[in-house]
Each structure stands twice: as structure tokens, then as C-alpha cells.
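Question (not urgent): is this output format expected?
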Amino acid sequence: GDPVKIRQWTIAGLPTDTHSTENAMIIQHSRRWPLMIDPQGQANKWVKKMEADNGLDIIKLSNPGFLRTLENAIRFGKPVLIENVGEELEPILEPILLKQVFKQSGNNVIKIGDSVVPYHDNFRLYITTKLPNPNYKP
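Got this back:
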């Protein structure tokens, strides 16, 4: 990996072991949004520090306005951290998790529930769980 990028991650709180660095590279280059199994909270702290300058929104699925926050982040290209998820994810997240983006009038959009939201390419989503061994259904 890029030594400068790895150094930035380390400064942002990523542990210096090879396993953590490899996981960060996978997160950076993956086409899917990461779900980080994080019982000690290290990934949570790392994402918060790494994305702080980009206006990171931090939400829990139990927050009453989580969907509005998520829609605005998608619209304006902000990063979002959904923290402490359980073994059940909200079905409304499915189009976001599957990146079901489509063109409408020449613009990228995504349908979330009944809303069609403009999709900004800078949008990033991180998900963490404190569960040490979660079991997610396909």
C-alpha cells in the first residue's frame, strides 16, 4: 500500500499491526460499504478521526432522525458512520448497502423508501458493531 496513506491512517488511530493495515486497505478499495466488527471500539475511533475533516455524521439506527441524516449525507457527499448495529439491519438500508444507484434525468439517484435522493459520488458509509461474533442473514 501507499506508505503516506498508511501513515495518515496510523496518525488517525489505526493500530500499526499488519492485520489492521490490510483491513484498512480493503475498506479503502472495496466496492461495498464496510461492516467492521469492533468490540473494542478501535475502528469507531479510527473512522471518527479519519473522517472528522470531511463532516462525518455519526448515527445509530435507534436515532429517530437517522434516515434524514443518511439521505442528506448521500445528497451532499458526506461520510456517515452507523455505529453499534445489532444482528438486524433496517430493511430501508438495503438500496444503500447494495448501491442501487440509477440515472434519472442524467443525474445519479438512489431510491430510499418512497424518496428518490440525488446520489453524490463522495458519499461514504461505515458500519460498526460491538458484537464479537455477529450472525447476519443474507
